[in-house]
Amino acid sequence: MSMTAYEWPTAQGIHLLQDGPETAPPVLLIHGSGAAGSTWEPMVAALADHFRVLRIDLPGCGRSSEPATYAVPDQADRVAAVLDELGLQDVAVVGHSSGGYVATALAERRPELVGPLALISTGPSMAALLPQPTLVKLLSGAAVGALVWPLRTDALLRKGVAATAARPVTISDEVVDDLRRTSFRAFRAIMRANRDYIVEQSVPQRLARLGRQPLVIFGAADPRWDPESAHDYDVVPGSRVVYLAGVGHVAMLEAPDEATRLLLDFLG
Hints:
There is one protein chain. By secondary structure, this protein is an alpha/beta fold. About 40% of the residues lie in helices and about 15% in strands. The protein has eleven helices and eight strands.
């Protein structure tokens, strides 16, 4: 049975939540840009029946401290330091959206720490990026976003997340609170770092070079990344691409049961 989530105060300034038995195989869940570990909550209970579930807030997000640099490899190094602190290796890693970039960079820099790798709604390259939903563009724009960001109400934060979904979603007060903690400066820096990472080399190219065989889950109605771009991962030998019908960008909120079943099957 799963345990109640408890916080682990890491020396890296990274906020960490753990669920499930400490003796179970570990799985690390990495959220996307400007989000937080709390966004995975709808999937945690089922995963924690089988795994020691680790959820982090990436640097500058949620309850984690801001770093000196948001470069994706540097974010991966901070995550690696947390796993070292916990004494873990061969951890199953699941990344959502740009969290998949940090997961990939972690496998690049510390391959011994990463076991099975799964990516959910992780855009493979900048060529796959779609025109963004209006509210997302408004909140992330350099000029208007800086003015709107401090004025975000709970309702606006919920609308911002819902704008990336294709199904109705329930967004908890905890998620809203965590989203509010990320500063506009941090969010903009994270977005620039993510772009730099996939411009340098696409995620499928990186994974093929590493010899990884990821599970790639994509919403068939993703409004942020062209759903057809999921097949860019076909160049990775042994990869498996799965579409979720009628699902947008946030499968953990839109289709948590379907996404969890796919992960449990993949992770065995």
